[in-house]
Amino acid sequence: MVLQIIDTRDRKGEVECIDIYQKEDNSKNITLRVRIEHKNKTLTDKEYSKIKERIEEKVQGFSK
Fold it and tell me: What does pTM read for this prediction?
């Protein structure tokens, strides 16, 4: 699932689905709350962006 993308030996995360909005049959908006903690450092923008992209890819696969 999505947590496999976030969780490592030094990093843990939580993903919460806040809302799913579907106006039409072929369109769906999903709002997620993602919390990521690294126990040794602050994540860089580049690290966060990479995780975010992988989560978006995974969620798009679920919504189809």
Answer: 0.71
